Amino acid sequence: MRWPSRVKDALGSLSARLLVAFLLPTLLFLALTGTAVYALARAILEDELGTSLSAIAAATAGQVSGERMLTIEPGDDVAETRTWRNLVRLLTDVRDASGVRRVYVVDTRGQVRVDVGGGLPVGAEVPELARDRLELSRVFAGQRAASQVLFQGSDGLLYKTGYAPVRREGQVVGAVAVEGSAAFFGPLARLSRSFAAASAGALGVLALVALVTARGLARPLRRLMDSALRIGRGDLTTPVPPEPTREIGVLARELEVMRGALESRDRQLKLMLAGVAHEVRNPLGGISLFSGLLAEDLKAGAVEDAAGHVARIQHEAEYLQRIVEDFLAFAREQPLSREPVAARELLHEARGLLTADAAARQVDVDVEADAAVLEADGSLLTAAVVNLVKNAVQASPPGGRVQVTGRNEGRDYTIRVQDTGAGIPEAERERIFEPFFTTREKGTGLGLPLSRKIARAHGGDLRLVPTPGCTTFELTLPPAGERPQPLPGRTGEPTL
């Protein structure tokens, strides 16, 4: 049988899906968040570094004389002229005080006038300036600027350059460049690695939680699966164990309700089959007996006796027909055809249908009913009341009385059928609503079960009310417009 293995595979895939459902969104969230935070922190720090370097360059440019800077010519660094030495001293002090790597001054053609930290001679062109052409254009226009990209120095570290203009009589004649190290990338990289390690740890914890959760879900589902398989194999007696989890507990309870309904249905079916077999056996035996006698009488020419046998055969056939009709009426599932029904007229109609039976047994049937309108299937409800009145008439002694009343009691309408017969023994009261249970020789035992089934299909109920000296059956019906709620997951009209 492949179904159980498929269910087990589904439970296994449930664990895998839960793991994926837990881990994949978390992994994506951590990856995207970590990347975004890293990029944002890097951008902020880069901007802050560029702002700081350009501020240092601006402060330095404010101390540099543009006129003296232009007097520095190639070879002054070799001759170490006083103007060159003074500018070197200024830039050295700035480098040492700010902790930057390099400070240099260039003219508008990009040629070095003084380079502290880079070692380029006076008049040389700075290669890095080609990279920062856009920034230098802004600087030569009179603004501060910083390089937009980091560059790697010979030491393998990343650097950034800040620029500020050098002026002479209000005109820009050069620029001060300050190179600083992006030392924050070391802690930032360590922070990134720490974040990655913490994310891996969080994913490990989530994986463990997902695994525990998956197993916690799979175990009760596996128990439900085992119960469903037992029910599928025909074991309707083993109850479905309750589950503590709310949602799965609801499934377990509904499965137990289904099992109980199937068990009850199976028990009823077995009783019905046994009852039908028992009830059918007697008339069939009578038909077989009298048909044999009929054949013998016909051969002997005894026509009068043959007519009597035919009558007995017809009587047994009618009883057999009634058994089949009662069985079909009880076993059939059909929707109710609701319409407004006058309760008082319904009870009088039920009495009228039993006038001949009551007269034959010399039993009076009295009806006293309050006026009410019921929303019901008139023919089925009449059949239920007829069954109750018929049982009461048959249980009453000659000269007895059956009292049928209908009363508006609160929101319900209650129909009572009371007789003064011998009553129902206490030992049999629990079984009178079982199909095919009867104490009469020619009873099918389906009248009371069918009447209760009709009452419950209308949203009401039928019960026995034992009272001293009489037997009373109460059939309660809800008011018009109030229908029983359909079972969960089902819609439409209740069925009988």
From TrEMBL:
What ranges does the record give for the region Disordered, renumbered to this chain?
477-496
Query: Which part of the chain is the HAMP domain?
Result: 215-267
> How does the protein's chain sit in the membrane according to the entry?
Multi-pass membrane protein
User: Locate the Histidine kinase domain: which residues?
Assistant: 275-481
List, alphabetically, the GO terms of the cellular component aspect.
plasma membrane
Keyword annotations: ATP-binding, Cell membrane, Kinase, Membrane, Nucleotide-binding, Phosphoprotein, Transferase, Transmembrane, Transmembrane helix
Where is this protein localized, as stated in its record? Cell membrane
Q: Does the keyword Transmembrane helix apply?
A: yes
What is catalysed by this protein?
ATP + protein L-histidine = ADP + protein N-phospho-L-histidine
Source domain of life: Bacteria
Major place of localization?
membrane
Molecular function GO labels = ATP binding; phosphorelay sensor kinase activity
EC numbers for this chain: 2.7.13.3
PANTHER family, per this entry? Answer: SENSOR PROTEIN CREC, SENSOR PROTEIN RSTB
Q: Which protein is depicted? A: histidine kinase
Q: Organism classification, top ranks?
A: Bacteria, Pseudomonadati, Myxococcota, Myxococcia, Myxococcales
